[in-house]
Amino acid sequence: MKGFGRLIQIPKTNLSQFLSVAYKSSSSSPIASELKTDIDRICRIINDHPFPDVPLVPTLLQQISSVSLSTYFVESVLGRLFAAHSNGLKALEFFKYSIHHCQLTPSVDAFEKTLHILTRMRYFDKAWELMIEMRHRHPSLLTLKSMSIMLAKVAKFQSYEDTLKAFKRMETDVFVGRNFGTDEFNVLIRAFCSQREMKEARLVFQKMHSRFSPNTKTMNILLLGFKESGNITAMELFYHDMVRRGFKPNSMTYNIRIDAYCKKGCFGDGLRLFEEMERVCCSPTLETITTLIHGAGIARNTPKARQLFDEIPKRNLQPDIGAYNALISSLIRSRDIKSAIDLMDEMETKQIKHDSVTYHTMFLGMMKLSGIQGVCELYHKMIERNFIPQTRTVVMLMKYFCENQHLDLGLNLWDYLVHKGYCPHSHVLDILVTGLCSRGRLPEAFQCCKNILERGRNMSESVYLMMQRYLKQYDEVDKLMELNRMIKNLQFVLPPSRGQVIDSSC
């Protein structure tokens, strides 16, 4: 739901930005290299720490010097823990350690990352406690973005009524003394729209718009919600209602509508809106052009995609990673894998780093057009660059390796992630363990399950039942008892989650 993030932009602290820029600009220096190594080391220590048998803070006191605990260091570790699907309580312990055991004032970014990790794992009680604690100790950390993180996850995992109660609690218990207005109303609307709960979003809008005066951003959030739900008719009806109410469309409004048509394969309609946008003197943004490049790819119109890309500098804009990814996607759709590889090389020449979307798109293309050899070449290049792909790419790769009888590559990917301090997603475990067990590689499957449990994450019920069956079949009852013990320990601290192991009796 990246689009929703653009509609509520919260600036980070100048200090955080300065440290980030300073680090990036000197990333080749010995000091920067040492800092990165230290961040990697601490992330591995936190993820590998026995949970919940042993408290984490004594280890942190032993392993981290208070002198080296900078704002950038804390933000980087928490960012890695978030990307690594680490246990939320470990992240919370690290965040509190950074506050209580040195003179460091927590940054907004560090607080928001901790809140995000907690709410993603449904530790809502801990998240509320943290927000209220920050209200007393560091009220400047409470921003619209932190409110948005909390409400979005409540809307995802709890009911409509619970979300409204959470909004009210924000007003009475967390943001005390703050007059809630349109910005806060937009956060509530966004929480429902980001989950595609448009019925609830409209209900809230109708119920509360008399109290909070909606603005163009409100309408764009709702418009984006209709777009993400895939209902172009509902989106267009709302757009005309928006204009009728007197709201003037801006570039974001046009971008949303263009994206909706492009994703439905109606590239001509997208171009029509683009021309209308220029006609009414609403300047197209880089996002507009990027959306059209992607739309041209969906329509298999690669020449138009290339033309739009080449026109970017003529519009006094600079192509970024998003524009390159859109063109790569267009080339892949037209089965031009060679040009896509050349474009990756061009990105490196221009010092535009490949991101998760670049790799995911290229892997999809390799799987369809180059087979296992092309996938392996790209995979090894990615590993050599120490790049960590996002979960959806890891899932896709693991499934491809296991389905094509390359279990060793699947295990290699698993070990790479674990070594880097990441806790692979439970769906990745499902795929790998199924492949290993079906080929009689039970010891390796058992070790992968232990890797997950040791890091404070649970396995799915289906994987547990599979391991239970195979361990009993091969008379490995001791290993089954070890898994049961670890699962029971976690049940005291993990919130209930659908599809995970609840009872682990033999």
From TrEMBL:
Keywords: Repeat. PPR repeats lie at residues 215-249, 250-284, 320-354, 355-389. InterPro entries: PPR_rpt, TPR-like_helical_dom_sf. The keyword Repeat applies. Signal peptide: none annotated. It holds the Pfam family PPR_2. GO terms for biological process: chloroplast-nucleus signaling pathway; mitochondria-nucleus signaling pathway. GO terms for cellular component: chloroplast. NCBIfam families: PPR. Belongs to the PPR family. P subfamily. This is Pentacotripeptide-repeat region of PRORP domain-containing protein. It comes from Corchorus olitorius.
